[in-house]
Structure formats: structure tokens, C-alpha cells
Amino acid sequence: MPDGTKATESMRAAIIAALPRLRRFCHAMAASTADGDDLMQSTVEKALAHCDQFREGSRIDSWMYRIAQNLHIDRSRSSRRRGTVVPVEDAHDLIGDDGRVTVESRSELAAAQRALATVPEDQRAAFVLVVVEGLSYKEAADALEIPIGTIMSRIARARGRIERALGSDG
Predict the structure, then answer these.
(1) Per the CB 3.0–4.6 Å rule, which of 1, 20, 140, 168 could disulfide with 129?
(2) Would you say 71 and 43 are in contact if contact means Cβ atoms under 8 Å apart?
């Protein structure tokens, strides 16, 4: 699509409207807020660069969730091959306790985020789309391009894992 066309402007407006939901999804998928923001930025860049691949009549947010999930999977595979890398200039931050981290770890939100981080990526994506973003099982299945039964199973397993991680009885 050439820049400045009505279709391009409409696509950009739809992407902008989806940003808050996309940000929540990316933060839930990533290990940190900074990684979530990086994932979101990469997702938007890819969506804008490939807006000609968007199928009319489908949901823009579902399309972007799929892009984000694929980017996250690619990054996870890449980082597993490379291992953990810490820049030398950041090594001084590894010594001692960070007061901010200590305070955050005490909050219920931090506990929930930690519990969510223990959930396998495929289950986490399904859980976030349905529970956090409020998509129906069918919409989430369409967004992730998997059967609705798989969505239901993944959400059930994710809930169980989160409950165990939080020490909940049920």
C-alpha cells in the first residue's frame, strides 16, 4: 500500500487502537517490561512493514498477537542458542539486592507475574488472550491458529499451574 492512502491511514489507526492490548500481551509474554516493550515495538514495525499481508475482514489485534507470538518464539529460540549475555558495564548491577526489585517482589502483582512466567509459552499466550484481553475461546483460537479445544486445554493447564505457583487451593 502506498503511504498516505486512505487504506494505509485506516490500517495505522487500527494498529494504534490495538496498542494497549498488544502491550499487555507483549509484557505477559516477555521476561521483563523492557523486553515486552521491545517485543511490542518489533511487532508494530513488522505489522506496518507488512500491512499488505493483512487479510481484510480479520481482526487487527489477532493478527498482531500472532506476529508478537512468532517474534517472541524466534527470540526465545535464538537466546537459548546464545545463552545468557550480560554486558560488562551492567555487571556491577548484579551484586547485592536492588531495593526496587525487593519491594516489587512483595506485591501480589509481582507474585502473579512470576506465576504467569512459569507457564509454558503456548499456554501463556492462550491464557493472556482469553483471561487478560477478554477474547472468546474462538477468537483466541483464530488468533493463534489452533483448534478451540486446544485453547481450552491450554487455559485449564495454565490456570492449574498459576494456582499451584500462588499456593491457591482453588
Answers:
(1) 140
(2) yes
